[in-house]
Amino acid sequence: MTKPCIICVAITGSLPTKANNPAVPISVPEQVESTQEAFEAGASIVHAHVRNDDETPSSDPETFARLKEGLKKHCPGMIIQFSTGGRSGAGRTRGGMLPLRPDMASLSVGSNNFPTRVYENPPDLVDWLAAEMVEHDVKPEIEAFDLSHILKAKEMSDKGQLVGTPYVQFVMGVKNAMPVDRDVFDYYIHTVRRLFGDDAPWCAAGIGRHQLTLNDWAISSGGHARTGLEDNVRLDRDTLAPSNAALVRRAAELCAKYDRPVATPAQARDILGLAAA
Ligand SMILES: [Zn+2]
Fold it and tell me: What pTM, to 2 d.p., does this model score?
């Protein structure tokens, strides 16, 4: 049997609104319902941001706590990953939910440009977020917007700032950051294997219409895949995605095409070195 593929669903993000796609879950009950449907379609990780009632991004630990409670109840065993990104400039409030001890949290280890601003991740904030994750037993997912971020993860791992084998996600197709480039993608894989070992798990995310491309590349190359309305609100140019689950089903179809079983939550926990649920 070939290696199971973990499908991560990024349900909300900090940018898309109901005006972009009415299926984007904003309130906690909407987020729980959307995640449950995606979970039943094969997602074993949920990557979550929370929002205020007016759809603006929030870092409110109390909202994260309500979300975690709902997800634990309705998606048993699913890996819960909270975002510590998305609110550039917000400083340490970005990590204010880490004491809730989600299974995982995203960790950006360097700065880069975003479509209309700088995504600021100053060294002292990166060090603090990483230390909080160690303190609260939260596994980081390293968001690699650039090659240097993979090498930074190696440095942090060597210094004991990251526990276990780093789980790196390649992010491609964010305007003004790393474009979707196959040679770079292949070199990212080569670099992860060289630094962390041939068996080190990695995943990839593509933004907008590139989501499907990155799903295809990652699944066919032995990596894990991220999908969801945070990164892309469309099925194709003319069709809005009806749900997060619809995007998960599309990734699961690619897994079938490349003969990769979709990882169960238990398999995903094993692959990532997380405790059983
Ligand atoms: Zn996110």
Answer: 0.97
